[in-house]
Amino acid sequence: MSPHSPRPTTGWAKQVRQVIEAMDHTFRWGIYDHAPLKTWSTDRITLLGDAAHAVTPHLGQGANQAVEDAITLAVLLQDAQAADIPMRLRRYEDLRIERTRQVHDGSREAGALYRSTELSPGQQAERIVAINDRLQLDTHDAERIANDAPHGTLTTR
Predict the structure, then answer these.
(1) Residue 48 in contact with residue 70, Cβ under 8 Å?
(2) pTM higher than 0.70 for the full model?
(3) Given Cys at both, which of 27, 54, 95, 111 links 58, Cβ 3.0 to 4.6 Å?
(4) Is residue 153 part of a domain?
(5) Torsion of CA 142, 146, 148, 151, to 10 degrees
């Protein structure tokens, strides 16, 4: 930057400038986006959370999806005998894989909205709220869904 160029913070609120000036250094970090796995389980082992379906941070859903996974597993494994485990793990995956794919895709969509230079902040906010509503991020009930699902039957994907 030329010494004659205006400072990037020119016109910003005093408090914001003070916070920035107090920083010793800043850095960039990568957001690595991976395609969802096609399967998460074997007969005795399963993955949950980011290990199964990492998601970009644009909807703040990484930890929430892990909690939904854990609740689903807890319900499905509650009364399971050793012989039931393979089918219950497949049922867990069957119940969760489409939901996590939708959240993954919604987070990608939100990331693109945040980076958009063609939308006003108000338009961006409206579209983010629409993603939130579409995905039922505030109302999805993984425990109810797991309890309502037959534990011994599987659908085909």
Answers:
(1) yes
(2) yes
(3) 111
(4) no
(5) 170
pLDDT in tens, the chain (157 residues): 455 555 677 788 999 888 888 888 877 778 888 888 899 999 999 999 999 999 999 999 999 999 999 999 999 999 999 999 999 999 999 999 999 999 999 999 999 999 899 999 999 999 999 999 999 999 999 999 999 998 754 444 4
Residue 140: give the domain boundaries: 33-148
Specify if 26 maps to a domain.
no
Structure token pair of residue 84: 């039931």
Between CA 41 and CA 61 the distance in angstroms is 22
How many CA atoms lie less than 13 Å away from 50 in the CB half-sphere? Answer: 9
49 contacts 95 by C-beta, under 8 angstroms = no
Whether 68 is in a domain gets the answer yes
Cβ–Cβ contacts within 10 Å for residue 56, how many? 18
What's the rounded Cα separation, in Å, for the pair 10 and 17?
Answer: 9
At 63, which CATH number? 3.50.50.60
- Residue 55 inside a domain? The answer is yes
If one counts the domains in the chain, the total is 1
